[in-house]
Design a protein that fits this description.
By secondary structure, the chain is an all-alpha fold. It contains four helices and no strands.
């Protein structure tokens, strides 16, 4: 019974960590709003968005079921992060050449 409670605690903490990570992936919404208003990237750097995209990509590759079984929390939150970071990068690149 003790082993089961440790597994349950690990599962709960894993999902809590996944949920707590979501605000980190949503943080670029404000800079994206500013870029949208200005129609230019201004002084914003692409490096944080590219680094976050690479981080999520590596975690998704690691958490794939045939690579590391039982990593559903890591896979799910980083898939969400990868989609968000991909959209931020595309949005950034859309306005990157337009300086005013």
């Amino acid at each position: 019974m003790r082993h089961q409670s440790k597994d349950e605690a690990a599962l709960v903490l894993g999902w809590m960590g996944a949920v707590a990570t979501l605000p980190l992936f949503l943080a670029p919404l404000e800079p994206m709003r500013r870029i949208s208003q200005r129609k230019a990237v201004g002084s914003f750097s692409i490096i944080p968005y590219a680094a976050a995209w690479l981080n999520c990509s590596l975690w998704v590759a690691y958490a794939l079921p045939w690579v590391s079984p039982g990593r559903l929390q890591s896979l799910s939150i980083n898939l969400i992060g990868l989609l968000l970071e991909s959209s931020y990068l595309l949005f950034y690149l859309r306005y990157a050449g337009q300086y005013r």
